[in-house]
UniProtKB/TrEMBL annotation:
Catalyzes the phosphorylation of riboflavin to FMN followed by the adenylation of FMN to FAD. This is Riboflavin biosynthesis protein. Keywords: ATP-binding, FAD, Flavoprotein, FMN, Kinase, Multifunctional enzyme, Nucleotide-binding, Nucleotidyltransferase, Transferase. The keyword Flavoprotein applies. Its EC number is 2.7.1.26, 2.7.7.2. Belongs to the ribF family. One of its GO terms (molecular function) is ATP binding. InterPro entries: FAD_synthase (IPR015864), Riboflavin_kinase (IPR023468), Riboflavin_kinase_bac (IPR002606), Riboflavin_kinase_bac/euk (IPR015865), Riboflavin_kinase_dom_sf (IPR023465), Rossmann-like_a/b/a_fold (IPR014729). Residues 183-308 form the Riboflavin kinase domain. The keyword Zinc does not apply. It comes from the Bacteria. One of its GO terms (biological process) is riboflavin biosynthetic process. Pathway: Cofactor biosynthesis; FAD biosynthesis; FAD from FMN: step 1/1; Cofactor biosynthesis; FMN biosynthesis; FMN from riboflavin (ATP route): step 1/1.
Length: 312
């Protein structure tokens, strides 16, 4: 997948663009249906499937205090979009100048005159242009003028609820990772380079852990202990992950640490991905390190039991 930061860079390079418009935060199952539709539509006309989005989130520019934390890093979002067959990602820096562009001008000047799109795919609640005045109904009206094919994706329902990034955020805030996975189509995850911790896991508790610093622009699940899958290079390990501030040791900085089951190598400096598969318990302060050790043993036993049951 090729990534561009301005539509000028795309002009005349690709023919018959079919473009999906949106923020695609989380690339959840609703987004996945939209992307599948645009890829199929591009195949039908022997065109090029593309996604057009903005970064940062428009609210980060227009109303920073109300901008929600994102579900994925930019790199993770790009990988998931590419995996679905999108060939072009147009990820344009959002600013106040763009915010002032009218919906009609966005379609005429950018989508038609600059990109010459042949197809547009959007979600049912997509809005665009100055003050969000652009809607799927306007895109339908303008399609009769400019001749592009429009496809509007209806709500994608899972267990009676319309899938949305807001719904997923609310579940993660409560730590309901297994429920969130139903709407995402994958387990919520974080990734990064293992950093130096305070070495309590191995030296004091007997359970060595890999520590990850939090990206404060990305939402991670509520504080607590989680069953996890840890991806290191081409290998996958089961793990027990803790998100929080380690109240037993009166730490103040929130971070993630994960103990890999049946693994004893040094991970410092390596990049790992941690997927949270279920919540074991909430964060708790213990009277002593000994009491914490006993609880960790119970957590590990519970994680092993869950995975044994899942394999049956």
């Amino acid at each position: 997948m090729q990534i561009y930061s301005h539509w000028h860079d795309l002009k005349y390079k690709h023919k018959k663009l079919v473009v999906g418009l949106g923020n695609f935060d989380g690339v959840h199952v609703g987004h996945q249906k939209l992307i599948l539709e645009l890829v199929n539509q591009a195949k039908e006309i022997k065109g090029t499937p593309a996604v057009f989005t903005f970064h940062p989130h428009p609210l980060a520019v227009l109303n920073p205090e109300n901008c929600p934390p994102q579900l994925l890093s930019q790199n993770a979002k790009q990988r998931l979009i590419a995996k679905m067959g999108v060939q072009i990602l147009l990820q344009v820096p959002f600013d106040l100048k763009l915010a002032g562009v009218s919906p009609e001008s966005f379609v005429k000047s950018i989508l038609i005159e600059e990109l010459d799109v042949k197809g547009i795919v959007v979600g049912y609640n997509y809005t665009f242009g100055h003050r969000g005045r652009g809607t799927p109904a306007l895109l339908e009206e303008l399609s009769t003028i400019y001749g592009y094919q429009l496809k509007v994706i209806p709500p994608v329902m899972v267990e009676g609820q319309a899938v949305s990034s807001t719904l997923v955020r609310n579940l993660l805030i409560k730590g309901e990772v297994s429920q969130a996975a139903k709407y995402l189509g994958y387990y919520p995850f974080t990734e990064g380079q293992v950093v130096a911790g305070k070495s309590r896991g191995g030296s004091i508790l007997g359970f060595p852990t890999a520590n990850l610093e939090l990206d404060h622009g990305i939402l991670v699940p509520a504080n607590g202990v989680y069953a996890a899958k840890v991806y290191l290079d081409q290998d996958t390990y089961l793990g027990v992950a803790n998100i929080g501030v380690k109240p037993t040791f009166q730490d103040e900085k929130r971070n993630i640490e994960v103990h890999l089951l049946d693994f004893c190598q040094d991970l410092y400096g390596q990049k790992i991905k941690v997927s949270f598969t279920s919540r074991i318990r909430g964060e708790k302060r213990f009277a002593s390190a000994s009491d914490l050790m006993k609880q960790i043993e119970r957590d590990i036993h519970k994680v092993r039991a869950e995975w044994s049951k899942a394999r049956e």
